[in-house]
Write a structure and sequence with these properties.
The protein has 8 helices and no strands. With 164 residues, the protein is mainly α.
Length: 164
């Protein structure tokens, strides 16, 4: 969705003429778009783009956790997704997008893929396992020495570790 917003800005300022999802549905698989009533095609293109983004985001989650923790992995992943489209998908589908120089358009699309990467590649300190609020004893997780408790938030209790 963040990329969709970036795309609308890029189209609005004239950096790109046609978004890649629009090109894919109009040039690459036009029969699919023809089956959608004309007054709903813009929504279909947008939903397709969200689907592409969700799929790429889910694929990002399959990367090893250690790799995903790096601040650079998300933006680099976004650039890789952009590159895959540029050198693989667009030429394979015979899109006009794949031909010609178009430096302004390519830069605009590269930037929005970096934004995509920033969104899917949350920084390592973004945690949803605890509130960050200190407990009654002043420690962040309720243990007196500040070390995580074995049965604390985000961990399994002894009964879960027994294998039963």
């Amino acid at each position: 969705m963040a990329m969709s917003g970036m795309r609308q800005v890029a189209v609005g300022v004239g950096a790109i003429d046609r978004t890649p999802p629009d090109a894919v549905l109009r040039e690459g698989v036009p029969r699919l778009l023809e089956s959608v009533p004309e007054h709903r095609r813009m929504a279909a293109v947008e939903l397709a783009h969200w689907g592409y983004g969700a799929t790429a985001g889910a694929a990002f989650a399959l990367l090893p956790a250690g790799l995903r923790r790096s601040r650079l992995t998300g933006p680099l992943y976004g650039v890789a997704v952009w590159g895959l489209f540029e050198v693989g998908v667009a030429p394979l589908l015979g899109l006009a997008h794949a031909y010609g120089s178009r430096p302004r358009e390519r830069w605009a699309l590269l930037v929005d893929h970096v934004v995509f990467g920033l969104v899917v590649g949350a920084p390592p300190e973004a945690s949803v396992t605890g509130s960050g609020e200190p407990d009654a004893d002043g420690s962040p997780d309720g243990s007196p020495d500040g070390e995580p408790r074995e049965d604390g938030p985000g961990t399994t209790g002894p009964e879960d570790r027994s294998g039963a």
